Amino acid sequence: MCTSLGANFNYYSEHFQPWFYNPAKPQEKIFVFWDVAHMLNLVRNTLGDKKKLIDGNGNTIRWEHIVNLQNIQETKGVYAANKLKIPHIKFRENIMNVHLAAQTLSKNVSDGLLFCENLNLLTGIRGTAKFKFSQNNKPNTDI
What we know:
Blueprint: E1 19-21, E2 29-31, H1 36-50, E3 52-54, E4 60-62, H2 63-76, H3 86-89, H4 98-104, H5 107-118, H6 126-130, E5 132-133, E6 139-140
Antiparallel strand pairs: 1-2, 3-4, 5-6
Helix pairs in contact: 1-4
Protein backbone atom coordinates (compact mmCIF):
# COMPACT_ATOMS: atom_id res chain seq x y z
CA MET A 1 0.00 0.00 0.00
CA CYS A 2 2.73 2.45 0.98
CA THR A 3 4.71 1.88 -2.20
CA SER A 4 1.51 2.22 -4.25
CA LEU A 5 1.03 5.62 -2.61
CA GLY A 6 4.57 6.70 -3.52
CA ALA A 7 6.86 5.60 -0.68
CA ASN A 8 10.20 4.01 -1.57
CA PHE A 9 11.84 1.90 1.15
CA ASN A 10 15.01 1.06 -0.76
CA TYR A 11 17.50 2.80 1.53
CA TYR A 12 20.28 2.54 -1.05
CA SER A 13 18.24 4.12 -3.83
CA GLU A 14 18.71 7.77 -4.72
CA HIS A 15 14.90 7.89 -4.57
CA PHE A 16 14.65 6.62 -0.96
CA GLN A 17 11.47 8.15 0.40
CA PRO A 18 9.94 6.67 3.60
CA TRP A 19 6.85 8.82 3.21
CA PHE A 20 4.01 9.54 0.80
CA TYR A 21 1.73 12.50 0.31
CA ASN A 22 -1.58 12.42 2.16
CA PRO A 23 -4.26 11.75 -0.51
CA ALA A 24 -6.73 13.93 1.42
CA LYS A 25 -4.25 16.80 1.89
CA PRO A 26 -1.62 16.58 -0.88
CA GLN A 27 0.64 19.20 0.76
CA GLU A 28 1.13 16.95 3.85
CA LYS A 29 3.55 14.04 4.06
CA ILE A 30 2.75 10.83 5.90
CA PHE A 31 5.89 9.15 7.21
CA VAL A 32 6.02 5.37 7.57
CA PHE A 33 7.79 3.71 10.50
CA TRP A 34 8.31 -0.02 10.80
CA ASP A 35 7.02 -1.68 13.94
CA VAL A 36 10.24 -3.34 15.16
CA ALA A 37 8.46 -5.88 17.36
CA HIS A 38 6.18 -6.92 14.53
CA MET A 39 9.10 -7.14 12.09
CA LEU A 40 11.02 -9.34 14.54
CA ASN A 41 8.04 -11.67 14.81
CA LEU A 42 7.75 -11.76 11.01
CA VAL A 43 11.42 -12.72 10.61
CA ARG A 44 11.13 -15.49 13.22
CA ASN A 45 7.86 -16.72 11.68
CA THR A 46 9.35 -16.76 8.18
CA LEU A 47 12.36 -18.76 9.31
CA GLY A 48 10.15 -21.12 11.33
CA ASP A 49 7.73 -21.63 8.43
CA LYS A 50 10.16 -21.78 5.50
CA LYS A 51 12.77 -23.72 7.53
CA LYS A 52 15.63 -22.39 5.40
CA LEU A 53 16.69 -18.92 4.27
CA ILE A 54 19.69 -17.75 2.27
CA ASP A 55 21.34 -14.45 3.22
CA GLY A 56 22.87 -11.93 0.81
CA ASN A 57 26.25 -13.70 1.00
CA GLY A 58 24.82 -17.12 0.17
CA ASN A 59 24.94 -18.40 3.76
CA THR A 60 22.21 -20.85 4.74
CA ILE A 61 20.10 -20.08 7.80
CA ARG A 62 18.20 -23.10 9.10
CA TRP A 63 15.40 -23.35 11.65
CA GLU A 64 16.57 -26.89 12.28
CA HIS A 65 19.76 -25.56 13.91
CA ILE A 66 17.73 -23.67 16.51
CA VAL A 67 15.55 -26.73 17.10
CA ASN A 68 18.65 -28.91 17.49
CA LEU A 69 20.22 -26.46 19.95
CA GLN A 70 17.07 -26.49 22.06
CA ASN A 71 16.96 -30.28 21.90
CA ILE A 72 20.61 -30.62 22.96
CA GLN A 73 20.07 -28.24 25.86
CA GLU A 74 16.91 -30.01 26.98
CA THR A 75 18.37 -33.54 26.78
CA LYS A 76 21.70 -32.58 28.38
CA GLY A 77 20.01 -30.41 31.01
CA VAL A 78 22.49 -27.59 30.43
CA TYR A 79 21.64 -24.30 28.75
CA ALA A 80 24.36 -22.44 26.85
CA ALA A 81 23.57 -19.02 28.37
CA ASN A 82 20.29 -18.61 26.48
CA LYS A 83 16.60 -18.97 27.30
CA LEU A 84 15.69 -21.28 24.42
CA LYS A 85 12.91 -23.68 25.46
CA ILE A 86 10.02 -25.58 23.86
CA PRO A 87 7.77 -22.45 23.56
CA HIS A 88 10.45 -20.84 21.37
CA ILE A 89 10.32 -23.82 18.99
CA LYS A 90 6.52 -24.21 19.08
CA PHE A 91 6.13 -20.49 18.48
CA ARG A 92 2.73 -20.83 16.77
CA GLU A 93 1.21 -21.39 20.22
CA ASN A 94 2.56 -17.98 21.31
CA ILE A 95 2.84 -16.27 17.95
CA MET A 96 2.38 -12.73 19.26
CA ASN A 97 4.95 -13.05 22.05
CA VAL A 98 7.74 -10.70 20.97
CA HIS A 99 10.00 -11.82 23.82
CA LEU A 100 10.08 -15.35 22.40
CA ALA A 101 10.95 -14.04 18.93
CA ALA A 102 13.69 -11.79 20.31
CA GLN A 103 15.17 -14.58 22.42
CA THR A 104 15.05 -17.03 19.49
CA LEU A 105 17.06 -14.67 17.25
CA SER A 106 19.36 -13.43 20.01
CA LYS A 107 23.13 -13.25 20.31
CA ASN A 108 22.87 -15.77 23.15
CA VAL A 109 21.31 -18.37 20.84
CA SER A 110 24.02 -17.59 18.28
CA ASP A 111 26.67 -18.09 20.96
CA GLY A 112 24.99 -21.36 21.99
CA LEU A 113 25.13 -22.62 18.41
CA LEU A 114 28.84 -21.76 18.17
CA PHE A 115 29.50 -23.39 21.55
CA CYS A 116 27.82 -26.61 20.40
CA GLU A 117 29.81 -26.49 17.18
CA ASN A 118 33.03 -26.24 19.23
CA LEU A 119 31.94 -29.34 21.17
CA ASN A 120 31.18 -31.14 17.87
CA LEU A 121 27.50 -31.43 18.85
CA LEU A 122 26.35 -29.39 15.83
CA THR A 123 27.85 -28.78 12.40
CA GLY A 124 27.18 -26.37 9.55
CA ILE A 125 25.64 -23.76 11.84
CA ARG A 126 27.72 -20.72 10.83
CA GLY A 127 25.03 -19.13 8.61
CA THR A 128 22.40 -19.56 11.32
CA ALA A 129 24.74 -18.30 14.05
CA LYS A 130 25.54 -15.27 11.94
CA PHE A 131 21.82 -14.52 11.57
CA LYS A 132 21.16 -12.78 14.87
CA PHE A 133 20.14 -9.39 16.07
CA SER A 134 22.51 -7.31 18.12
CA GLN A 135 21.44 -5.12 21.01
CA ASN A 136 21.05 -2.11 18.71
CA ASN A 137 18.48 -4.05 16.58
CA LYS A 138 20.70 -4.10 13.49
CA PRO A 139 21.44 -7.39 11.77
CA ASN A 140 24.80 -8.58 13.06
CA THR A 141 27.16 -10.25 10.60
CA ASP A 142 30.46 -10.23 12.49
CA ILE A 143 31.09 -13.99 12.73
